[in-house]
Amino acid sequence: MAALEKAGMYVSSFREPVPPGELIELYPEQEYHYRIPSFVVIRAKSI
């Protein structure tokens, strides 16, 4: 986030989505993605 702020961006939202618990029950091998998300969603505006 520091790089975005340094570039003149205002970070208004930062989320790390995780799969729903039901998915882990169906596919236990995906448990890793429940603990460590594969991606982040950032909402930022130029200021």
From TrEMBL:
GO BP term, example = methylation
Q: Quote one Gene Ontology molecular function term.
A: methyltransferase activity
Q: Which UniProt keywords apply?
A: Methyltransferase, Transferase
Determine if Methyltransferase is one of this entry's keywords. yes
The protein, known as: Methylase
Q: Which organism is it from?
A: Methanosarcina siciliae C2J
